[in-house]
Amino acid sequence: MMLPFLTAALAFSATVYSHPETEEERLAQVATLNRIAAHSKRSLANCANSPDAMALRKRAVARRAAWADELRNKRGLQSRAERRDVKDLEKYLATSHNQTSQAFTLDTPVETLFGSNASCILVPETIVGPYYVEGESFRKDVTDKEPGVASHLDFQFIDINTCKAVPNLIIDLWHANATGVYSGVTAELQGGLKTNFGRGIQQTDKDGVVQFDTIFPGHYVGRTNHFHVMSTDNATILPNGTFEGGTASHIGQVYFDQSLIEEVEKNAPYVENKQPITDNRQDEYTGDEASPDYDPFMKYVYLGDEAKDGLLLWITVGIDITSNYNANITVASHWHPGGGTDEGDRLKEVAVVSPKTSASPAVHQGMHWTKLFLASLSLAMLI
Fold first, then answer.
1. DSSP assignment of 70-134
2. How far apart are CA 165 and CA 180, in angstroms?
3. According to the model, what pLDDT value does residue 135 have?
4. What is the mean pLDDT of residues 77-104?
5. Taking 60 as the threshold, does the pLDDT of residue 240 lie above it?
6. Rounded to an integer, what distance in angstroms lies between the CA atom of residue 68 and that of residue 77?
């Protein structure tokens, strides 16, 4: 069954994946990922025509279209869509996710432009990465005056078991700046503990939606351009504007068309990034074995004639809220107003919450590109 509204990022109670070192390990991992995707796709298939899902899609279309118009008006840009056709190719890495098509005019229905017509699912990256910072503040704008192509993000979270939106999730977003530097950490060549750009948290609304204003992230050694996203439920919101506790039900990364990356990186300050370029096919975490079952790339529209005029990007994220990935989280540092403290890649404590299905225990150390992420000790049987 086709899923006309979801380009979904699935977080299923599973395992932590390291980069496979042998062909046998690679094939085994691909088989596991495909099994997860197939299992979860069956769950999402039931959502295709459910009243809840159809209502969510309708509201998502209206929300994205209205936000695009608002952003264009703020920049004094003509509210139009005039770019290349969306290509229908075999693999997602070769598929354009640009919705600003030459075939679209001012008379094009917003359902066509801002709806999601893919029938595919993303198996999540369940490695949190080396630069996760605890204690971030609730805020929509995470730019902190960093220069770059303005990027406005719309994430919607759907429960794959009920087809309903997931409200009251805490969503962590973090990413590198235009020259591939992360804030808030002490690792060599990074921004340091007194910086906080590209980081923030939001709470999903009744439609399971959060929105962020930021810049398009740059590449760095060994990694293509990407956003990190983590969802936490049952968290306690603190008076100081952050949160504690809760259960991580999704840890993922989202990516962009290579053509979009190349267009963005023609502009300053991206051209000043001297780190070697790693494209989508070279990055070991993009899901280069993309199949018809999962798609890790965000859809987007240009707000003007070119990417440098700004972008609106979106993705719908399907999660299993019974998942628990707390054991997968390593904390590089903890943010406090005015500066952070180095946490030495400690394992995040498992929160005491209502019973949930736990992922396999894992021993991780968040590391720079010179080290490998450690894998979990065992794989959970999924089906």
1. HHHHHTT-------PPPP--SSGGGS--B---TT--TTS-HHHHHS-----EEPPP----TT-EE
2. 33
3. 94
4. 45
5. yes
6. 11
Cα–Cα distance measured from residue 100 to residue 88, given in angstroms and rounded to the nearest whole number: 15
pLDDT at residue 38, rounded to an integer: 58
**What is the total count of domains within the chain?**
1
Give the tens place of pLDDT for each residue, 155-195.
Answer: 988 888 888 889 999 999 999 999 999 999 999 999 999 99
Burial class (CB in 10 A: 0-12, 13-18, 19+), 291: middle
The three-class DSSP label of residue 68 is: helix
Q: Establish if 3 belongs to a structural domain.
A: no
Dihedral pair phi/psi, residue 264, rounded to 5°: -60, -45
Q: Around Cβ 383, how many Cβ atoms within 10 Å?
A: 8
- CB-based contact 1:369 (threshold 8 Å): no
In a 13 Å sphere around the CA of 203, the CA atoms on its Cβ side amount to 15
In a domain, 331, yes or no: yes
Edge to edge, the sheet with strand 247-254 lists 199-203, 170-174, 227-233, 247-254
Residue 303 lies in a domain: yes
> How far apart are alpha carbons 192 and 172 in whole angstroms?
19
**CATH number of the domain encompassing residue 227:** 2.60.130.10
Q: How many CB atoms lie within 10 A of CB 215?
A: 25
In angstroms, the Cα distances linking 281 to 94, 227, 247, 271, 287 are 10, 17, 32, 21, 9
Contact 217, 227 (CB under 8 A): yes
Q: What is the mean pLDDT of the chain?
A: 73
**Domain membership flag for residue 16:** no
Give the CA angle between residues 51, 52, 56 to the nearest 5°: 115
Q: Write down the pTM of the prediction.
A: 0.73
> In the numeric block, which tokens belong to residue 343?
């946490």
Domain extent, residue 189, equals 23-77+114-342
Element (H, E) at 258: helix 258-264
